[in-house]
Amino acid sequence: MAVQQRVPNETTSRPARRISDRLAFYLLASIVVSLPAGSAAPTPLYSVYQSEWGFSPITTTIVFGVYAIAVLSSLLVVGRLSDHIGRRPVLLVAIAVQAATMIVFTTADGVPMLLVGRIIQGLSTGAAVAAVGAGMLDIDKAKGTIANSVAPMLGTASGGIGSGLLVQFLPVPTHLVYWVLFGIFVLQGLGVALIRETVSPMAGAVASLRPQFAVPALARRPLLVAAPLLVAAWALAGFYGSVGPALLRRIVGSDSLLLGGLGLFVLAASGAVTVLLTHNRSARLVMSLGAASLFVGVGLTLLAISLDSAVVLFVGIVVAGIGFGGGFQGAVRTVIPLAAAHERAGLLSILYVVSYLAMGLPAVIAGFLVVDAGGVMTTAKEYAVAVMVLAALSAVGIAVRRPPTPNLAVEPCSATA
Q1: Which of 26, 178, 348, 360 makes an SS bond possible with 68, Cβ 3.0 to 4.6 Å?
Q2: Which domains does the chain have, with CATH numbers?
């Protein structure tokens, strides 16, 4: 009697179709670019919203600041979740929410909806950057380290200038840029569904949602030295993402919407180039370069305000951008190698707290100062002096600090911002 063989189910016998790791890496890198690009996209539009809805500069900086706080909150709560449930599930949800946020922006008819959109955008960005950054390191640690350092700055730069160009030269300025980003996120989400999972699920997902703050004894003093530089660098980025467009329009003498994203583009682009050119240099040297460049670049901004010179202003932004890129990466690379593997997440959380608070809170304070304490030019001068003082304090700390011996059990690490 013939034995009837069972024909295997096609869906169970064939492996799911997946894209190659090489293509997956570049897909993930594109997400690291598109996330900050999406966050920078509203910057050139703030003046449009302000004229249509009649709000003050304080509101502009609050809209900017809530995004930073939302990113920070998300990073602290779900930043480690992808280690437990996988990179793909976290990324798929985060990108879907990003796409939905673009629809919120296109339908916004007032400040409340704009605030809702920025908060949701920040939460999904914070969830995504941790997973996507880890995913790139899973595939290729060397390339992933560089991509984690450069791609966020490239995204901020491209988002600022790309949005400015669309807003200035193409129709429906408050809708088109968001529809473009919506399409990009949809395509990226489809791509993420086809990448292989790089980690195996493990227990502890719920416990990972509890933020952990731990500074290893060896890293405490270096962190105190790095903190002023982190605050200076990210406070400057926050300034050019909120109050900066008004300063540029005042000095350049133009109401062009393109100027809204140009300052942020120049700052982030020069920072990205700096990271690429210095990633093989010692962390101490890069950190020193960052502190000096921030001091000089912001000093040139003060000179530009006094001279009412657009040329000096943009030279200052380029030099300050070198400080932004070098200062942040130098600080991270100085502190993180001093933590053991089980201490790294907590230490990174503290760096994120410092960076995102520095980006959001001073920008909101600047908005109040613009309205109640002398206007854009006076506020810009006071802001510049504060950044220069912080950069100088960091430079002194770097000069007098003796570098500690890194924890040899720790692998090099990079942070995504």
Answers
A1: 360
A2: 17-400 (1.20.1250.20)
